Amino acid sequence: MPSSSDNASQHSLSDSNAIIQALDSGKNKRARKLLARMHPGKIAALLERLDTEQRLRLWQQIGPEVEERTLHHLSPSLRAQLAGDSAEASITASDEPDNSNTSQLEAVRQALTQGKLKRLGKLLHRMHPAKVAGLLEAMPPAERNRAWSMVETERAGKVLTYLHDEIRTALALELDPEDLIAATAQLELDDRVDLIQALPAKLGNQLLHASSTAQRQQLESMLSYPEDSAGGLMNADPIQVRADVQAGAVLRYLRLLERLPPQTDLLMVVDRKGHYQGALRLSELVTAELDQRVSELMHHDIAGIVVTTNSNEVAQLFQDHDLLSAPVVDEHNRLLGRITVDDVIDLIRENSDRALMHMAGLDDEADIFAPVLVSARRRALWLGINLITAFGAAWVIGLFQATLEQLVALAVLMPIVASMGGIAGSQTLTLVIRGLALGQVQKGNIRILLNRELGISILNGILWSVVIALLAVAWFGNWGIGAVLGAAILLNLLCATLSGWGIPLLLHRMGIDPALAGSVILTTVTDVIGFFAFLGLATLLLL
Amino acid sequence: MPSSSDNASQHSLSDSNAIIQALDSGKNKRARKLLARMHPGKIAALLERLDTEQRLRLWQQIGPEVEERTLHHLSPSLRAQLAGDSAEASITASDEPDNSNTSQLEAVRQALTQGKLKRLGKLLHRMHPAKVAGLLEAMPPAERNRAWSMVETERAGKVLTYLHDEIRTALALELDPEDLIAATAQLELDDRVDLIQALPAKLGNQLLHASSTAQRQQLESMLSYPEDSAGGLMNADPIQVRADVQAGAVLRYLRLLERLPPQTDLLMVVDRKGHYQGALRLSELVTAELDQRVSELMHHDIAGIVVTTNSNEVAQLFQDHDLLSAPVVDEHNRLLGRITVDDVIDLIRENSDRALMHMAGLDDEADIFAPVLVSARRRALWLGINLITAFGAAWVIGLFQATLEQLVALAVLMPIVASMGGIAGSQTLTLVIRGLALGQVQKGNIRILLNRELGISILNGILWSVVIALLAVAWFGNWGIGAVLGAAILLNLLCATLSGWGIPLLLHRMGIDPALAGSVILTTVTDVIGFFAFLGLATLLLL
């Protein structure tokens, strides 16, 4: 497909065909690239040749630079028609979506359904890449791909960095490999590493090999660290200075650099062998006297983070010390790179998000508009696991069929026992899961926590079991049923609390995410114990 | 209680009594303050007079500065005893808790229970205030107060800023008002504002009036904005420069300031009337030529955040634009202050934390070691609400008592229907709650989302209702029961999905937190519909 621009004219016919093909398959980026090397006269000729639908689709891909000149070559009737379409595409003040009631999402989807891709391109062009990413995530896949094809290649790389894993990979694969390379060429190395890790190995390798040798070495060393370590968060771009130079010299050096890496608030002080010695705050460098030495100004207490440190610990360090960036060192204290707070923010958000989603058996990185079949399969697993617990509960009830036949009121009341246990248990469970994540719950205080939780559930158990028992007595006029119900609820609340406390601690120790498995196991326990206690006591005492 | 140091000797007896009183009531901070103005000889005399227990408690509060001199005044036997205690309190290398197996929490609690408060004070002194805050949160209230009394007053203010609301207020109230004022004097204004808002009005006012006039004015203006607005996050300390000066002049000006506020990465460019014009990055100032003007260097696209902007929008801005700090302006674009990323991180963490806790009906700012009675009362409410839904479900079952009497297998199987519906519904619910928070779910795509979720639940409904029906047939040998069970589950999954989608959207529009109320309402729906569908169909078809 590549053709040098010298003999482009000989290729114009095949170019035209390639353009039509690209348009038909929704590869608007490729179509625009092909159009960019065609003469406006040729484009006009192609437009004349097409049917109305294809013509309009082609017109949507012609950029503002050549629009005028292409119009010039067209027949008058066609010119009027296409010029009119372009006028419609322009965004007037009243279209500004920020403050109006129609949301940006609606504006974008409207432009898509009406085929006004030129207008869509303009809308997207005015948005920050993060906003574009947000909109893409809020669209179903077919629309998303069409909108994606209208994002300029040079902005596409930045947009990719703001997407959740699943969508990021899918959209990166939508691009031609050469476009993907062009799109990611301007990205910071840590963003490029994330992307390479998310892509299939072959494409990731292509991306890696398209980098300059120096960058490739850095990328390869960054790729060698696990994603959830300090190394995986690290960028290899710290500004390094020596301890024995004066502030004035550092300032002159920075002026020579012309540009500092984004989010630079610290300069790293290293010795001749690259060992990290301390950090110099930019805000203190600018207030220092010019003849002060770096060694007087630098902070020794900004410790280097060892490259293998777990990313959650890194996040905690940033939060506790209000860091904006921090040095990363190897096991010999040699400076490797730095971590910036923007990546830590993403990590913190993802971590809390994950607990919420995992508690419902959902994947936090999945596309919420993934194909129905894909999502259905993912969720089927969770329902299947739950089914086992539900049948477990049913089996317990089945043990007491004879009892139920004699006293059908028990069947009416038994869901109350399971439900109250489930609620009380999930409160303790959530508290412990969150406490483990925040470090509030540790080996040194788990017993105290258990005592407290048991105390709470005894108080609430007594209160509510009495209330429920009285309600049941009022309903069925049977003191025995009330007593059995109350006793079962009290017992189930205690077991629920014990499980809500013990299950996450056990899972945590086994290295299993307590948010993911905790609630299913808890429900099983509260259902089984609730039904067993209620129906068992009834069998013993009421028959 | 205040006594001038001139006539301190006349007050020494009453001082002694005050010290004993302070010690007895756990007010170690006050005891230390009183001790600080006593002569070592007097302290020694007091020590001699006390019984062993009180003497040891007093000794724990004597600082290292006067320890030597006090020992000198003591009788030999007492000297040996107390010197030995001090030697024990020193922290040796093997005590370093960071890398050892005994956690810091255990070390601190051990020191507490053994009454080695001197050692405790040293342990706490070596920790970062954020770590101290974390440890305090991980302790039951009685221990926490004792540990708190050993935190130096000058560090106590910083520790307070890292605590969750409930504990922060409680510990601030533990301090004498004058100590609280001293402790918070060094805090940044935004942290002081947070604290004043958390305190009872009277104490908050005292804190406010203890500030210098200039600070008080700033504090008062900051207090006038709601906590969840840009104004509530704002600090009133931006460095301001004019657009027409040269980079060299700005650098000279900064050198005169000697110290920039923490987390300064931007200088704010304002005109003579204080209107915000743009921002100058420190990292670009240091790389600029000295004769370049600020107007050439500054960024016009770093927009001022209007002071009334909702804090969630502020957080989104920081995340999307990778900001470290941002200017805050009034409605006339006059610069009021700036927001720094450390406060935004706290906000992001709290927000995600809140959703998780609210879904279990818990308060994310509450002390997990609050007195049992307090916690029990809070959770009782949630159990009570749940009880209403549980009785609703029981009432539905009650309608079908006659059916259940004839076919007790229904009672065995009915929890399965409710449970499957609950799981499927809570998946959709969580997805929508999180999508609303992230902006993935908006007016423009809620219908698509519903279609997808319904599609998923139809697929899974068919799959699992067939599986469950076959299992039920195998169990009870009755095709009718299987058919009714399957149909009820399919129906309940569909209703659960519809509710999981609709309830949070409705609550969101009504301004109610969908995480807090959503799951209770959803469970009610899935229970009621599940039981009704199953028993209703059985009554119609099987009897």
Question: Can you offer a commentary on this structure?
Answer:
The structure is a homodimer of 543-residue chains. Chain A has 543 residues and is mostly helical. Chain A has helices at 12-24, 28-36, 40-49, 52-59, 64-72, 76-89, 104-113, 117-125, 129-137, 141-148, 153-161, 165-174, 177-184, 189-198, 201-209, 213-223, 230-233, 247-257, 282-285, 294-297, 311-321, 341-359, 372-399, 401-406, 409-438, 446-476, 479-509, 514-542; strands spanning 240-241, 266-270, 276-281, 305-306, 325-329, 335-340. Chain A has a 3-stranded mixed sheet with strand order 1-2-3. A 3-stranded mixed sheet of chain A has the order 4-5-6. In chain A, helix 21 links the parallel strand 4 (305-306) and strand 5 (325-329). The longest helix of chain A is centred in the last third of the chain and has 31 residues, at 446-476. The radius of gyration of chain A is 32 Å and the shape is flat. At the A-B interface, helix 7, helix 9, helix 18, helix 19 and helix 21 of A face helix 7, helix 9, helix 18, helix 19 and helix 21 of B.
Number of helical segments of chain A? 28
The residue-averaged pLDDT of chain A reads: 87
Task: Give the strand line-up of the largest sheet of chain A.
Answer: 1-2-3
Query: Which residues of chain A sit in consecutive blocks of at least 5 with pLDDT less than 50?
Result: 1-6, 93-101
The tally of strands of chain A reads 6
User: Biggest interface between protein chains, with counts per chain?
Assistant: A-B, 123 and 123 residues
Distance between the termini of chain A: 85 Å
Structural class of chain A: mainly alpha
The multimeric state of the shown protein is homodimer
CA gyration radius of chain A, whole angstroms: 32 Å
Sheet-strand content of chain A, in percent, reads: under 5%
Shape field of chain A: flat
* Major sheet of chain A: 3 strands, mixed
Helix content class of chain A: 55-70%
